[in-house]
């Protein structure tokens, strides 16, 4: 009886996880200007650890802010991003002032020196977007 129960559980999981429910993703690349920022009031707002999307930032997180024109290209909240010359995957957690175009801001916690040393660079980012079915 126990084996039958286990078989039914596994079979149910296989059916509920059918490929038609699987999401498909594609990676896009784009050259942007990259700067760095810190969660300090004089650089952001009176609540420097809270992003424009309402997330809480903590030093060590791999996050970026994006210019608002990039939002229209799909770089929305929690989009996965890789950055040329940097290790790991970053998440879009913040958006920049409307005056900036084609730009990302890399979150560097409270390390002002690291942000200043980063400066401003032109580089390529890759970002993951979900493929929408046309049906």
Can you characterise this structure?
The protein is α/β, with parallel strands linked by helices and 135 residues long. The protein has one domain (23-130): RlpA-like domain (Barwin-like endoglucanases, Beta Barrel). Helices cover 19% and strands 31% of the residues. It has 3 helices and 6 strands, in the order H-E-E-H-E-E-E-H-E. The protein has helices at 2-16, 68-71, 112-118; strands spanning 25-37, 63-66, 80-83, 90-95, 103-107, 121-130. The chain has a 6-stranded mixed barrel with strand order 1-5-2-4-3-6. Mean pLDDT is 85; it is low at 4-11.
In short:
The protein has helices at 2-16, 68-71, 112-118, and strands at residues 25-37, 63-66, 80-83, 90-95, 103-107, 121-130. The chain has 135 residues and is α/β, with parallel strands linked by helices.
Oligomer description: single chain
Topology as a string of helices (H) and strands (E): HEEHEEEHE
Radius of gyration: 20 Å
User: Hey, roughly how much beta strand do the residues contain?
Assistant: 25-35%
CATH topology: Barwin-like endoglucanases
How many helices does DSSP assign?
Answer: 3
Mean pLDDT: 85
Q: Structural class, please? A: alpha/beta
CATH class, anyone?
Mainly Beta
**Main sheet strand line-up:** 1-5-2-4-3-6
- Pick out the low-confidence regions: 4-11
Count of discrete structural domains: 1
CATH architecture: Beta Barrel
Would you report the number of β strands?
Answer: 6
Helix content: 10-25%
Intertermini distance: 43 Å
**What's the name of the CATH homologous superfamily?**
RlpA-like domain
Mass-distribution shape:
globular
Largest sheet: 6 strands, mixed, barrel
């Amino acid at each position: 009886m126990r084996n039958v129960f286990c078989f039914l559980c596994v079979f149910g999981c296989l059916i509920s996880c059918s490929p038609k429910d699987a999401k498909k993703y594609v990676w896009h690349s784009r050259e942007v200007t990259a700067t760095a920022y810190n969660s300090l009031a004089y650089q952001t707002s009176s609540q420097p650890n809270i992003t424009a999307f309402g997330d809480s930032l903590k030093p060590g997180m791999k996050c970026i802010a994006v210019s608002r024109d990039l939002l229209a290209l799909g770089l929305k909240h929690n989009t996965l991003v890789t950055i040329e010359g940097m290790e790991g995957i970053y998440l879009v957690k913040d958006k920049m002032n409307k005056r900036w175009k084609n730009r990302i801001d890399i979150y560097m916690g409270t390390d002002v020196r690291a942000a200043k040393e980063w400066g401003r660079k032109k580089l390529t980012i890759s970002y993951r977007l979900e493929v929408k079915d046309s049906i």
